Records
---
Amino acid sequence: LNMEIVRELTDKEESMSWHAEAALDDISVRKGLIGIELKQMPLRLSANGRYSPESDLASIDSFAAELADLNMLKLHGTIGDISAGPPDMRITAKISSIPLEKIKSILYAPEAAWLAETDADGTFSADLTVSGSYTSPQILGVVSIQGRMLSLGNTVLQSFSVRLPFEYQGSSMLIKQALIQAGSVVLLSNGKEYFADNNIFIKGDIEGDITGKMFKGRDFLINAGFFKGITASADISTAEPVTINADLSYNSVDIDEVSRVFPHNIFTEKGYTIAGKGAMHMTGRIVIPKNSASQISGITSVELKNAGLSSADGSVICEGIQMKAS
């Protein structure tokens, strides 16, 4: 750690300028089952600024954090009422294009099986503005994740982007107009594709109480190449046991188009043509205890309207099918 402080006196005021540098090696920070390990990845910090005793204002002209060869973080701003208190912050920060694989490599979470099953070719960026006191700051920002490929277990996204504009203060968080897009999505089972669709578009709002461990997803709209106009909402409690209550509606189902999404479609493989309209509504509850199997319950309601089925040789023809089931 190196620090240099220079006192400056003029006819108008007294001030102090400062410059600081720090180098940290082999950092390991853990809390519970998750942490950060920077093995053989030196962290370098540098900052320049000025303090005016008369105005009781500190300005941070520049602050930079570099991890190995990555420029991870840059910020600047002011902190007022240093001695009078409580300090009043006005800070702008920027995180630019950190590779997702680099983030994965520094995370320590041996019991998070999903992390080991995650593969990504993309970057993480964020723009943040922090204001108010350090005891209850207000944070406004936008988090962006984008890249060529993201694999989460049996789900693979190609040409994806995620944009999360958020507000945070105290324990309250609001993500307004969260947006997820992907050129395509593929779901795998035993290494084989069983579902695929393209032009994925998902948007919605998320609000949460971090202290109370309650989160709500509202007004979600899901569109894709074949699936269009799906609406969804969810209530999530991250307290033990984790509980998810979800609701999903799909009111404009084109049976023929939807069936074509599945590679192993029993109807087309047998030479049948299907047509008609339908609707689907699902409500479900998932309970995830810490030391036992997950519990899933719910109701799925399906409705068919004027559906039809015919074989290629015309030996089987069914028309005007109406059905409701749950």
---
Amino acid sequence: GLRVYYPKNENMGEIAHNTIYDITYYGMYIYQGSTYNFGGFDIHHNEIYRVEKRQSTTSTSSIVGMYFGYMDPCLIHDNYIHDIINSYEGTGNYPGYTAGMYFYGNATKANEGMQIYHNRIKSVTSRGTDYSSSTGYYFHYMPAGILAHTVKNIEVYQNTIHMNMPFTAGGVQGAKWSCITLGGYYVGSSGNTIKNNILVNDMIGNGTESYCIYLPGYSSYINSVGTADYNVLSCPNGSIAANDGTNTTYAYLDSWQSAGYGDNSTDMDVSLTSDCHVDGQAAISEDLSCPLITSVSIPTDIDGETRTAANNNGCRYYKLYIRIDK
């Protein structure tokens, strides 16, 4: 894949229009270490797919579309990540993680100030690993569309994430699968905004737990979504959200709203095409319409079509088709 290791320039420029596929471990790996500051990346219009581990090893086995370590403010948008498959996980205490996008930080430095929008992420799966019940630390080994180890003040807008593949053979009981997982290591995950996304998780099987948004629980983790609203949430085989830190599962939207999130979100089944476009010819409730966000300027969708207040969720503008029979 593409690797940028320990850059020291504050304005890194573009990483754009790359197609990366049929590789193992990382499609894109950008890592600076906790002692440097770098930002200014504009990472857009890349397609990463068929990142897969195909044989068993005894080492850590992480399969990630885009890996980011200790990032400073940058733009990550209009990327398409799909078919991220971890069929063989490592052994011991570090079995590896599986994600469309993975953000790593620690007690020294978080990933901070990023804008993540217009991305399509789908078909992310692994055997499933449940370490949370015994240690709590290993939440980041749960498969997710966006898996954020430590992030602060990030904006996640108008992405479409579809967790639509079953666990791979040999999966363990109790694994947690989510569209977005947020957890902060000591410095905390705080001030984050998740708005106008379409989050669909219809994974099922072998005792797995499925969520649209998951906050892991552990004594050293400080979790905060910040603001999560105007999202379309669908998890027919699981729960809308869970916070293991408070031992709370929000099975339905009304309980998530009672916790202070998603007053203007909607819980509904969404029909997505194979490339994460909302299927305009399927039955779509008018509740899918959400007002334009104002905190960031994203006037068009991933196809370049102008957004309106009536069509503003996810990365792709959708159209309704009406047939009139005479």
---
Amino acid sequence: CARPIYVTVIAEDDSRLLAFGGVIGVTKTTSGRGVGIGSMNAVNSLQATTTAQIGNSSLDSGTISVQAICSPHLTAIAVAGEIVIGHPLLAVSGAFSANYVNRAVTAQITGDATDTVQATGDVGVSATDSPDLFALSTGVAVALGRGATERKPQKFTATIGAAVSYNHLYSSLEGNPGPGVIASIDGPTLQIGANDLRVEANSTPTLEAIAIPLGVLGEKGKIGLNVAAALAFNHLEGDVVAEVTNSDVTCDNLTVTATEQPDVSAETWAVAASLLYSSSQAISLVVGFNYTWNKDETETRATLGDRKSTRLNSSHLVISYAVFCLK
């Protein structure tokens, strides 16, 4: 049959997941002390495996392109509110939002020395990873007394609002560290002549974690405690690899590139407002706590196999890798 002008192998994942959860509790007391506790947890997991491959094949073509593109979007929102009215003693509200994305993005040409890939045009092997993760949590705790008309002030009233947001991007296969983002040529004989061979692995993840707790206390009393705590976390794992190994390659220009450029942010706002009034002395304690944590444990590398297993005949050779730090 006639030689094809173009051979294109593309695998693309553009999955989207949106999760929203909310809970509001109201406690009203006319006698005795009121206690209200509310929580909301949103935990989401997404498995994204994207593979484009020419394997164990002999091929004679014009231009050859192998592309694996993975761009999952995962959004989780958790809102919790607890309101205690009348004779409040304690109002507690907590919200937790977490996203887990396990991805494996692979573009490759594989085989052995008997598998010959010939091209009269350029050959490109690329793996592109651009996940987007967003986690938002809000916990609102409100304690409101009956006001200055209350005859006897309360001895103690407290509100606690907490919010936690967490994003985790990783690569795991059956419980073990997985391939991450890989573009590779492994094993075959490539004859491209005076044309270009490009092997590229690119990862541009976007992770945003936001936590906003709110504590509001208004009461006639002697001691008031108002606490707002916010925690936000982002964690990146998985390798970004471009490589040529165990292959016999003939081309004009060979470029092997691996790039990682994460866009990561963790934001927290702890808001607490108290109004404590008494005919005698009153003590109001307001505590706001913020904590953010970002960690990137990915490994980025661009390699050629050792000389014993890989033969190259190229007039121009470029091997590069780039890692851009977290914001």
